[in-house]
Amino acid sequence: MIYFYQLLQNIYGDTFLLGDYFLFFTTLHFIAVACIGLHLIWVRRTVSVALAWLGVVLIFPFLGLIAYFLIGGKSIGRALMDKAENLKDALQQQLNAAFSFYQADQDQLPFEEKAISRLAASHFGSPVVAGNRIDLLTDSLTILSHFIADIEAAKKSLHLEFYIWAIGGDADKVAEALIRAAKRGIDCKVLLDSLGSKDWLNSAWPERLRDAGVELIAALPIHFGNFQFRRVDLRLHRKIFVIDEVIVWTGSMNLVDPRTFKQDANVGEWVDAMLRVQGPVVSEFETTFQIDWSVCNPRVTQFYPRSFQQQILPGTILAQKLSTGPIARDDILYQFILSALIDARESLIITTPYFGADDGLMQALMASAHRGVDVTLIVPRKNDSKLVALSSRSYYEELMAAGVRIAEFNGGLLHTKSLLIDRRIAMFGSVNFDMRSLHLNFEISLLVYNTEFCQRLNALLQTYIQKSSFVDPVAWAKRSRLQRLKENAAYLISPLL
Q1: Which strand (E) or helix (H) includes residue 375?
Q2: Which spans in 371-430 are helix H?
Q3: 411-447 pLDDT, tens digit each
Q4: What is the pLDDT of residue 200?
Q5: Which pLDDT band holds residue 293 (cuts at 50, 70, 90)?
Q6: Residues 55, 59, 62, 68, Cα dihedral to 10°
Q7: Beta-carbon contacts of residue 292 (< 8 Å; ≥ 6 apart)
Q8: Which has the closest alpha carbon to 229: 389, 82, 438?
Q9: Long-range contacts of 105-108 (CB under 8 A, 24+ apart)
Q10: Mean pLDDT highest for which of 84-98, 167-181, 290-304?
Q11: Which residues are the active-site residues?
């Protein structure tokens, strides 16, 4: 600040006094804060988010203002919004046909599951679909090898949509397999988040794939001149890999080899799990991919609804796709999780690498624990984001006082994202238990209404617990005042993380 003042004095001479400087910038800052306050009132942000932003711009006058212009809004940009709006009628036509075709499947659900499935299906959601087979895979290198095998066996199409594709290890072998598939005439489309996959997109890989015939799009690109029109941290966080429209992979894992990915973060290898799904529900994931591809690809102007036909059913599992994002349905994801917490009768197990609940979710978690539900939260002991780790731990004392058990995973960065309700309903996919996933990012999960699958998922979660240490409430209460101060400071900006 003093250097800037000296610069002004050099320009204007001694006529520019220190008092003038403070009066000028104090007035300017007041006007800016007032404008941001009016904007927060106009768009009706949640109270916690609005107060957090006001605190940031007040405490950090210039950096706070810049941050608000970069990430304070919730728009993906006028062009993408207009395009999504133009595709809405075709999407609604597709969904109407799906709900009509799968009506009998919805009727198979028990009453409690039927109620929560209707919530997931509301406002451009997808129907419950019967006849699916779901395999749960938990080793990342095995998953990558299966990716390659499915690519090699593909007959018609390969559609990939991921937040991160990282260079190195067996992730490169997936790219090589995709190149071979494109050269033999398979329709290969790849949609990657421009920020999450920036290193890969800036490498030689995109040109190699395009030269082989792979169509590749970087979603939500960041243009420095458009910050005022689009929030730059709204990201495509989905993990979808559709093979021939008969198999889909989804879950928490990006296209990365854990042996090489983020090894400098000093958190160990990332621990993930994925679902390999066969059956009619695959078509719902294909619809999500096609909509995202149509919105993000400037060369595509239409989305054509597909017809539904009877097919041989590979399994018996009832499942439902849950896709959400800032264009629409972010409130549905929040409401679904809130309802799941409130409806639980026996147990809740949550796995998430990033925990950042708001007051509503905190009250629901604590209420469930108070009424006797066995609530367990599994998070990694080490996190690649120190700020998120501090913020997450600011919730521990309140949760444990209500009876929630908190297990810190010691075997690397636990990246699996799941919610298991009474061992009869599972939510599994890309959603973290934080405000970014619930309200900002484009996310996707599979809801599974099947006790046999839930038993398999529970067995996996128990292995995570075996590799974890439960936080001791007594020892936690004795942590240093400095540590408590850092956690509470991070908590104040947790609505913005």
Answers
A1: strand 374-380
A2: 386-393, 396-402
A3: 999 999 999 999 999 999 999 999 888 888 999 999 9
A4: 98
A5: very high
A6: -20
A7: 161, 191, 219, 236, 238, 442
A8: 82
A9: 105/129, 105/130, 105/131, 105/318, 108/318
A10: 167-181
A11: 237, 239, 244, 415, 417, 422
